[in-house]
UniProtKB/TrEMBL annotation:
It comes from the Bacteria. Residues 99-112, 127-141 have a biased composition (Basic and acidic residues). One of its GO terms (molecular function) is coenzyme F420 binding. This is Pyridoxamine 5'-phosphate oxidase. Signal peptide: none annotated.
Amino acid sequence: MAWWSDLVNEQPEFAERVRTRFAVRKHGTMATLRRDGSPRISGTEFDFDAEHLRLGSMAGARKAMDLRRDPRVALHCPTEDAPDDPTAWEGDAKISGVAHEDPPGEDGSHRFRIEVTEVVLTRVGDPPDHLVIESWHPDRGLRRRERR
């Protein structure tokens, strides 16, 4: 089992670059699994504290019901484009994990801590003729590859 703090302790610079991508805007994207196994995409807010990556939802929200039934989740950072200069694109971060529900908020809202199973950061390389894909997995650590 790995929490956000495990990544921060093992790969602090990589974790900070990932967190920065998630902080570019307030809302990112979350994928959950519906009862029939098909994907559901929802907007959500992320919170990174010293120990955990957390997310929440309003009481009774479909995405929360999905996570209660099947806690597997995929998160995608808010998207930023650089249409005038593709080389200025800062990158894209994704986190896969398992949601663990915390006690509800006073208003009945749902709160989850995310057990991290994989983190991926993709960006334009230097020179800008390729992509750099960095991925971290609790069992294998950080890996980097290039795609041309």
